[in-house]
Structures are given as structure tokens and as C-alpha cells.
Design goal:
seven-stranded mixed β-sheet; single chain; binds ribose-5-phosphate; six-stranded parallel β-sheet
């Protein structure tokens, strides 16, 4: 029986994923859920304990916000899972960290995406994630060269939510990277889309220039893959308000919202904020479990269907 393995601080989304795995039509064998027990030693090191006997098929659920701690957990848990019986190991990481550092912007700068990606690919047989920040590197498989890399998107779900809450809204992507998500969302929800231009000078120092478009009196929803410091959204919102937008709301896949992000966004004129539950947050309005469950079933089945030759090359001996 395949096993979903999760951590106690993500019990709620893991339970939702388990329920969705059971509810999804065409389900493979029923999944069970178990938790990795963690103890933090006084010096900061982890002691992890996994169930002592694991089935052949194991999916580890870990969304990679607070990435540095969690990557160490994975560094320990993935090889341990294999020692304990897992023969095919999936990582279900709704939020995939370190995807934005995809180039060296100055000599000697580490291209973190490449190294984190290669390391995850060595540790897991398959990866399922949502709206990974792919920009200069076009596909998830290039960033994380794992046997099966599935990049899902919440853009259509966020677009539908925006259309329901603000009928006829204009969807605005705050920078050129966001064009991929904003266009998908607009197509799915039959809304108008536009994309702004952004210049980033520092972590909290960004400038956003609106496209040439009359937004007077319009409801606008800023849509992006993530908000971290909230400065990108705040600058876009302030510009939209100054240009006469009637309302400015925000829809993001990954609600990182570090520090004073929400306060800064609200002060800039943002009304409501909606996000998926890839990162647990008060703004969560779109559950990802059905999307993730369908992808996990598809992934497991595709290994089964592709037959023994492919399977045996994937399964670790
Ligand atoms: C980058 O292009 C991303 O899509 C987001 O726009 C960015 O990470 C948001 O960062 P912050 O909230 O810190 O401005």
C-alpha cells in the first residue's frame, strides 16, 4: 500500500492530500498517511524518526518555504526512507524553493537553482510541484533533472476565484515573469490580462511601471506566483491606485509574505489577498489537494504502465 509521509507542522495539508487521493477517480491502491517524528537538539540539529518499515511506493509531502531547515530534513529523510524499504520515492513540494536564483548575476555567484535541483534529483525519483519560478530556465525538468518532474499550475484556479470575487476584473502581472501565469489565469477565467514592467534594485527596493492601459474605475487583481516581501505587489498596487483603479486585490500561488509584507501591501491600497494553501497562511483560499492528488495518481500510474524496463531503471536497487 503506498504511503504518504508528512511532517507534523504540515499535517493539515497532508490530510487534505490523503482525502483527495482517496476521492480521485481512477485511484491507484489506497494510500495511507504517516508522519516523520522530529526532535530538535539544543544545538539546532535534527533527529528524525520514520516508520521503521516502509512500502515500496512512498511520497514525501514537504512544501519548501523556510527552505534551509527543510532541505536538511530532506537530506536526511530521503536516503533513510530508502534504507527502510522505499523503492520509489516522490517529493510532493507544492512550493519549491531556490528557483529564483537561476543565473550568476555577478562572478562567483552560486546558481542555487541548479545545485538544489541536482541534489533533489539525486534524492528522489519524481517531483510534483506547483508554479515553480521558471524564468531563464524554461522547464522544471531542466531545473530539477529528476526521472519524473511535474510542474502543475494554480493559475487557472486563481483566475476562476478572481472572476468569481471580482467579475470583469483586469488581471495584472507585475513583471514579465508573471506573464505565463497571468495569461493562463485570464484564458481560463475569460478576463482581460496585462503585464507590467519591474526593476529590482534590492530585496525591498523595486519599481513597477504599469502598461499603457486605462484602469480608471476598474477592479484590478494583481496575480503572481508568489509574494515574499510584498514590495512587488505594493508598488504595483500603489501605481494602480494612483492611476484610478477602483479596487486592487491580490491572488498569488505561494503566500510567503515575510515580515511586514501584508502591512506594506495594505498601506499601498491592496484590498483582499487570496492564495493557494501551498504555504499555510490566513489568505489561503484555493486548496491544492485535488490537483496534487490527480498528479500523484498519474505519476504512479505512468510508471506502472511504462512497464518493467522503465520501472526497473527508475527503482533503486
Ligand atoms: C519574482 O519575479 C516573483 O515572481 C515575485 O514577483 C517576487 O518574488 C516577489 O517578491 P517580493 O514580494 O519580495 O517583491
Amino acid at each position: 500500500m503506498p504511503l504518504l509521509l508528512a511532517f507534523d507542522d504540515e499535517a493539515a495539508p497532508a490530510q487534505r492530500l490523503l482525502a483527495a487521493l482517496h476521492a480521485t477517480a481512477g485511484a491507484t491502491e489506497p494510500w495511507t498517511l504517516a508522519f516523520v517524528q522530529r526532535h530538535r537538539f539544543p544545538d539546532g540539529e535534527w533527529r528524525l524518526r520514520l516508520p521503521p518499515e516502509l512500502p515500496a511506493e512512498v511520497a514525501l509531502y514537504r512544501s519548501l518555504h523556510q527552505p534551509n531547515d527543510k532541505l536538511v530534513e530532506l537530506l536526511l529523510a530521503a536516503p533513510a526512507a530508502r534504507e527502510l524499504g522505499a523503492r520509489r520515492l516522490w517529493l510532493v513540494a507544492p512550493y519549491l524553493a531556490y528557483m529564483r536564483q537561476d543565473a550568476a548575476f555577478s562572478p562567483g555567484e552560486v546558481v542555487s537553482q541548479r545545485h538544489v535541483g541536482r541534489w533533489l534529483a539525486a534524492a528522489f525519483d519524481g517531483l510534483i510541484t506547483v508554479d515553480p519560478h521558471l524564468h531563464r530556465v524554461a522547464t522544471l525538468a531542466e531545473a530539477v533533472p529528476v526521472a519524473q518532474a511535474r510542474a502543475l499550475s494554480a493559475a487557472a484556479l486563481l483566475g476562476a476565484l478572481a472572476a468569481q470575487r471580482r467579475p470583469g476584473a483586469l488581471l495584472l502581472g507585475p513583471d514579465k515573469e508573471s506573464a505565463q501565469w497571468v495569461r493562463q489565469a485570464a484564458d481560463a477565467a475569460r478576463l482581460q490580462a496585462a503585464v507590467a514592467r519591474k526593476v529590482r534594485r534590492g530585496d525591498r527596493d523595486v519599481e513597477v511601471a504599469l502598461p499603457a492601459l486605462d484602469v480608471r474605475g476598474r477592479a484590478v487583481v494583481i496575480l503572481d506566483d508568489m509574494a515574499s516581501t510584498g514590495r512587488t505587489v505594493a508598488r504595483a498596487a500603489a501605481a494602480l491606485r494612483a492611476a484610478g483603479a477602483a479596487s486592487v486585490d491580490v491572488a498569488v500561488t505561494h503566500a510567503l509574505f515575510v515580515g511586514d509584507a501584508l502591512a506594506v501591501m495594505k498601506a499601498a491600497g491592496v484590498g483582499e489577498v487570496w492564495s493557494t494553501d501551498s504555504v499555510p497562511h490566513a489568505s489561503n483560499a484555493v486548496p491544492l489537494a485535488p490537483l496534487l492528488a490527480a498528479a500523484l495518481h498519474r505519476s504512479v500510474r505512468s510508471f506502472q504502465i511504462s512497464g518493467n524496463s522503465t520501472t526497473s531503471s527508475i527503482l533503486r536497487k
